[in-house]
Amino acid sequence: MGQIEWAMWANEQALASSLIMLAGGIIGVNGFDGWEYGVYAIIAGTLITVVEYPRSRRTKGTTIERKFQRILNPVMTKGGPVTQNYYVRFVSYMIACIPCVFLLPTLLGGMCLFIASIIYFKAAFGGEYWKPVGDQQRKRTLTNRPPSRLPPRPPAPANKPPPTTNNDAEDNGQPDLQTPPSEPPPRPGAQPHYRNQGFDSNAI
Amino acid sequence: MGDWIVNEGPKWLILLIWYVINISLWIGIFFKYDGLQYYYTKTLTGEGLGVARASAACLNFNCMLVLLSVCRNLISYMRGSCTCCRRSIRRQLDKNITFHKAVAYMICLHTALHVGAHCFNFQGFMDGHTSDEDTLAARLSDLPREPDYAWVNPIEPPNEDAPFGLGLVEVCFTVIAGWTGILITIALIVMVTSSTETIRRSYFEVFWFTHHLFIVFFAFLLVHGIEGIVRYQTNVDEHNPIECQDQEWGPDHECPYPEFAGTSPTTWIWLLIPILMYLIERGIRLVRSFQAVTITKVVKHPSKVIELVMKKHEFAMQPGQYVFIKCPKISRLEWHPFTLTSAPEEDTFSVHVRLVGDWTDGLAKACRVDEDEFQASSKMPSLAVDGPFGTSSTDIFNYHVGVCVAAGIGATPFASVLKSMWYKYNNPDIELKLQKVYFYWICPDTNAFEWFADLLQHLEAQMMEQGKGSFLDYNIYLTRGWDVNQARNIYLHEGDEADIVTGLRQKTHYGRPQWDQIFPGIAEAHPGINIGVFFCGPKSLSSVLHKKCNQYSTIKQDGSRFHYNKENF
After folding, report:
1. Residue B194: closest CA among chain A residues belongs to which residue?
2. pLDDT given for residue B393 in this prediction
3. How many CB atoms are closer than 10 A to CB A58?
4. Where are the beta strands (DSSP E) in B161-263?
5. DSSP H or E stretch at residue B100
6. Chain B residues inside the 8 Å CB shell of A191
7. B317, B393 in Cβ contact below 8 A?
8. What DSSP character marks residue B324?
C-alpha cells in the first residue's frame, strides 16, 4: 500500500462527512433538544464542503477534477497552510467533530468526519499536501486535439499497382493510401530481445 | 424503434421491475403503519415510524440483492451452462457489477431516509417521557414496565440532567438498534467513499480491504432488530385506540389497559439465503486457492508489462473471461482481477500484468522478471487462481459477422478472443458460424500494448501464410497523433510494406474512427444478418457505439441489425 495517496480517500470521506453533517444539521434544527448544534453543523458542514470540494492534483497520473472546482482555486491557493496543509485539516476536523456529539442527527456526520481526519493525518504524515490542478499537458504530441486528417504522405505515383489489402470490403473513413509492400522497417523504441511471443505459433 | 427494444429492452425491463418492487414495498409497508395496532405507537413518534419501517423493508430487499449480484460463480453458471432463458436475457447478467452499484445507491438513499426518520422517532419517544402535560403520549410513556406486554415506549425514562441533545444520544446507545445502526451506517459510508472510481482504479487495495467492512455491515444488520423495540397493540378488539384514547383505562373501566408486543425482526428472512450463497462463493474461492498453479513461463514485454503463463489442473476457460489471482508471498489477503489473454484451445492460460502498483511490482519481483538467466520453475512463487468468471465475448461465435472495438486497455480481452477465433477457424472439425471479423483498436499510442501489436503481427503473418487473409480485418487508430519527427518518419517510409509505428502490414490510422462511415459500410457488405458488436473500453465511447448500433440497425428484411455487447471491468 506504499504508493497510495491517502489524501484522495481522505478527501472523499471528508466530503461525504460534511454533506452528512449538513443534512444532519438541517434535521437537527427541527424540534430536537440541542438544536443550536444543528445550526453549527449546517455552518461547519458547508465550510468543510467548500474546502473539500476541489480535488488536489495527484502526484502520479491525471487528476479528474470535479465540476466547477476551478472556481475555488484562488480561495485554496491564497488560503495558504489553512487550506493546503493536511495537518491543519487533521486538527481542525478533530475539533470540528466534537460539537456534533451533542445532537443525535449530527452524530453520524461527526463520527465520519473523525475518520476523515485520521486519514488526513496519515496523508500529512506521508508528506502530502493540496496542490492545484494545473493544465495537464500530455506528452509526446504537438496537439491536444486528436487529428482527423492523415499525416503528410507523398502523393501516390500514377503507375503504382493496386494495393493488396484486406480492406476492400468496407470504407474505413480514411482515403485509401495503402501502398504495396517492401521490407518492414525497424520499430522505434522496440528492443528485439523483449519480443518474446505470447502466442505460440507451434500450437496451431 | 424495434431495434432499440432488441438491444436495450431487457435491461430496462429488469430495472423497471426492480424499481416497481422497491416502490410497492415502500408504499405497502408505509400504509401498514396506518393500521389501528400502530395507533398508539405513532402517537409517540408521528409519521416518522412509517417512513423508517418502509425504508427498512426496502433496505432488506436491496441488501439481499447487493449480495446476490456479486455471487460470481452462480452468475457464471446461469450465464453459461444454464439454458433456461434466451441469450438476450442471460446477457443482462454481465451487468451484475453495474447492478450492484445501482443497488448500493438505493441502499444509501433508504439508509438516509431510515436514519433521518428514526432521529425524529427517538426524539418522539423521549418527548413522551419528558413532557409535563397530561397528553396521550405522556400517558402511554407512563405505562408500567412490567409485565412485558404493558409498555409501548421502548425508552426508559431518560437522564434529564444531560445537557442539549446528549440525553437522546445516550438513549440511542442504550438500545441495541441504536448503536448497531450507527455502527453499520458508518461501515456503509466508509465502504462507499472508498469505492469511488478514483480510489478503485488507482488504489485498488484500499477499496479491497475497506469493502470487506461488509462483514461488519451484515453481521450487525442481522442483530439490528433483535430487541423488537417497535411495538404494536395486540388487544385492539377489546381496547380500540381511537375510542379509548381519551377515556380512563383499567380493568373496571370500559377500556382495559392496552397490551403490546414487539415486532419480530425480519431481516434474517431476507438475508439468510444470500449470505449462505455468498459464503459458498467464498468457500469455492478458498478451495480453489489450495489448488496448485504452476507458472510455466514468464515473459517480459516492453513498457512494464509481464506475461504469466500458467497451468492448473482442470482449468477450463472461455475467451474474454477474467480470473482473480492471489500471491500469498506478497499478501495472504489480496485477490486481484486480471483478464485472461490466452485462448481456451491452448494447454496453458496466461495473463498480461501491467506493473503499476505495489502488488504488481511485488509479483514481478517474485517471478524474478529482472534476472535474465533461466529460472527453474521451483523458484517461481506459488499462486492461487479463482475463476474464470464470465463476460460476453463468447457470444461472438454466435454471429456470422463480428465487429470488435477495443479502446486502450480494453484490447486485453480481445487478445483471447482473437486467438480463439483463429484456432477455431483453422480447426477443420469445427463448423464456425463466424466468418468475418472487423477489429478496431483505438489507443492514444501503443505504449504498454506492444505485446498486443506483436500478437496482431503473428496473426497477420499466419493468415498470409495460409491464404486466409480475409477472415480478420483490423484497423488501428492512434489518437494521440504524431509529432514533427514522427511525421517526417512516416512520410519517408510511406513506400514500405509495413507500418512504421506498429510494424503491421495494414497501415495505422490517425485520429478517431468515423463510425458514420464504418457502420453503413459493414451493413452494406453483409445485408440481412445480425452483426454482433463487442466493445471494451471507456464509457464515453461505449455510449457512442451503442447509439450507432441503434442508429444503423434496421428491422427491414434485407437490412442488418447491430447487436451491442459491452464488457464490464
Report:
1. A9
2. 66
3. 18
4. 231-233, 260-262
5. helix B96-130
6. 302
7. no
8. E
